Amino acid sequence: MKKIIVNAYTNRQEIFEYSKLKPSSEFVPSWWKDLPSKPELVNTQEYLGYKLNMRGCPGFVDLYKLGYMLPLWSDLLVEVGAKGDTSYRWQFSDQYSDATVHPDHQRNKFLPDTEYQHIKINAPWLLETKEDLNWAVVPPTWNVDNPENIIIPPGVLNFKYQRQINANLLFKRDKESKIIKIKFHQPLMQIIPLTEKPVEFRFHLISNEEWENRKNAGGYGCIFSRSYYKLKSLMHK
Known about the structure:
Shape: globular
Radius of gyration: 20 Å
CATH architecture of the largest domain: Distorted Sandwich
Structural class: alpha+beta
Distance between the termini: 28 Å
Largest sheet: 5 strands, antiparallel
Strand order of the largest sheet: 2-5-16-11-13
Helix content: 10-25%
Number of helices: 5
Strand content: 25-35%
């Protein structure tokens, strides 16, 4: 079976050394590993049987056999205002990474800014493949320390027609303002190739000039709306 090659590019040495995308199996959470590997026998007056846990859950085990995780490459602090207060700010520990915001009118006020703050983290990777292959974006819920604070929405990517792999996050507002910390190497998303073919990632450290050339060629605002589909149509032609 022909192998699918995904070329991953970054222009940052520290990212290339310490924050590559890796198989999901390398991000199995520690709380799961600490569970007893065998069911525990419970013998009390009220109950006789085995105490089960998630070590034997096929839905969990099989999930971590699939795809790859994008880890956060720098600690991130996000401050959001209280409910009704749309203020926000963020800071990366590397003093270099950045993010953008999509206002809630773009999602027809679904999870409105008065209740949640959207932030799209600009990942320092560009991914390319010659295969017309969709990848499911799955939120890494089992790896998130505070899932009550953060929503990571699912989606679909195709690295033949787009190269960026940015992470969308929605931070929940509470009665009072709060600061949320996302730690270095926290998975931001799990990407699962929708194919049975084997997949191989090849990582490349490139110059700033080549980074800009690849980034701009991989999708730009050629029209005001739906640029992705316009460029995809042109590539098919």
